[in-house]
Amino acid sequence: MKLVMAVLSSAYADEAVEALLQKGYRVTRMSSTGGLLRQGNTTLLIGAEDAQVEAVRDILQQHAPGALWIVLPLERYERF
């Protein structure tokens, strides 16, 4: 299991989240700020199986150009 963290322009957030949800991914969306101009960004947290990481990347590339993404291993992932 992996945790994909993606930081993208808020202008692309709605489209990217909708595309991920349509494919069945669970997404947590948070507002974030950073960079030289302190522009508004959105940070997405996406839980994905190892085999799904490339599909998540493809969705982000298609719907959120310029997004920064980080993939972290998860030892434990639970839904209550």
What gap, in angstroms, lies between the N and C termini? 17 Å
Main sheet attributes: strand count, strand direction, barrel closure: 4 strands, antiparallel
* Order of helical and strand elements: EHEEHE
* CATH architecture classification name: 2-Layer Sandwich
| Spatial arrangement of strands, main beta sheet | 2-3-1-4
Specify the overall morphology. globular
Q: How many domains? A: 1
From the alpha carbons, calculate the radius of gyration and give it in angstroms: 12 Å
| Helix content percent band | 25-40%
Number of E-state strands: 4
Low-confidence stretches: none
Based on helices, strands and strand pairing, what is the structural class? alpha+beta
| Count of helical stretches | 2
What oligomeric state do these chains adopt? single chain
Summarize model confidence as the mean pLDDT: 92
Topology:
Elements: E1 2-9, H1 10-22, E2 26-34, E3 39-48, H2 53-63, E4 68-73
Antiparallel strand pairs: 1-3, 1-4, 2-3
Helix pairs in contact: 1-2
Fold and architecture overview:
The protein is built from two helices and four strands; from the N terminus they run E-H-E-E-H-E. With 80 residues, the protein is α+β, with helices and mostly antiparallel strands. It has a single domain, classed as 2-Layer Sandwich (Alpha-Beta Plaits), CATH 3.30.70.120. A four-stranded antiparallel beta sheet has the order 2-3-1-4, covered by helices on one side. Helix 1 (10-22) packs across helix 2. The longest helix is centred in the N-terminal third of the chain and has 13 residues, at 10-22.
